[in-house]
Amino acid sequence: MVIEDDILAKICADKRLEIARRQAVTSIEELKRQIKDVEKPRGFGRALMDAAAAGRPGLIAEIKKASPSGGMIREHFDPAALARAYAAGGAVCLSVLTDQPYFDGSPEHLKAARAAVKLPVLRKDFILDPWQIYESRAMGADCILLIMSALTDDEAHSLEELARALDMDVLVEVHDEAELQRALGLQTLLIGINNRNLKTMVTTLETTEKLSCTCPPDRFVISESGIKTHEDVLRLRKVCVSGFLVGESLMRRADVTAAVHELLGTG
What we know:
The protein is of the alpha/beta class. It has one domain (7-264): Aldolase class I (TIM Barrel, Alpha-Beta Barrel). It is built from twelve helices and ten strands. The protein has helices at 5-25, 28-35, 44-53, 79-89, 107-116, 130-138, 153-165, 177-183, 206-212, 230-237, 248-251, 256-264; strands spanning 58-63, 66-67, 71-72, 93-97, 121-124, 143-147, 169-174, 190-194, 220-224, 243-246. The strands form two sheets. The protein has an eight-stranded parallel barrel, surrounded by six helices. It has a two-stranded antiparallel sheet with strand order 2-3. The model has no long low-confidence stretch (mean pLDDT 94). Belongs to the TrpC family. This is Indole-3-glycerol phosphate synthase. InterPro entries: Aldolase_TIM, Indole-3-glycerol_P_synth, Indole-3-glycerol_P_synth_dom, Indole-3-GlycerolPSynthase_CS, RibuloseP-bd_barrel.
């Protein structure tokens, strides 16, 4: 996610208060009951790896209404229609923002997007507490995001373990070499490299180019932020990047299906 360190700290502090309020209304026991009625996870990581095996870039297309840095991104916002448009363009998976205060997201956005297509869906949020893992599965998420800059090693390990116990995949996000080395201690094969420097807010694809070289070959590297053109995709594929999480550059286009085709070079 694209946020500065001090903003990240504030978001996480606000998120913990939100979790406490929501947990007072809906217990983990209630979420476990809800999970029994939810379709089994669709295999987020498997979908990406199948695309790579077929020689295709694994595009995770993001559904995001707003952001702290970009403001309102898409005024006319229909998650189900966007999901169908992304699928028609060739996206392999979806990412849906569910944080409300900072991204104008909602769990209902994820539910609507997932119901509209057969693609696996990542819940894009600030996951800090086990309660959110159960909530993620109850809303239908197939994968969760763990941001290493927001978590201790112990927190990341325990949250990953619970997600895997619920058959969800985990995408772990890193921004520098130290976070990458911490992330490699987790079981997940999905490593997301954010190209945005969280201190200067400067975005450069060189971040992925640098970190992907030190990533073990058994990990599936996903580049995030700053990917706007087909040339960007080709550039990153040269350094063994197989997945691409792209949101704002697609969401700002009137025709997102055409935008996906252009990005993938299939239009």
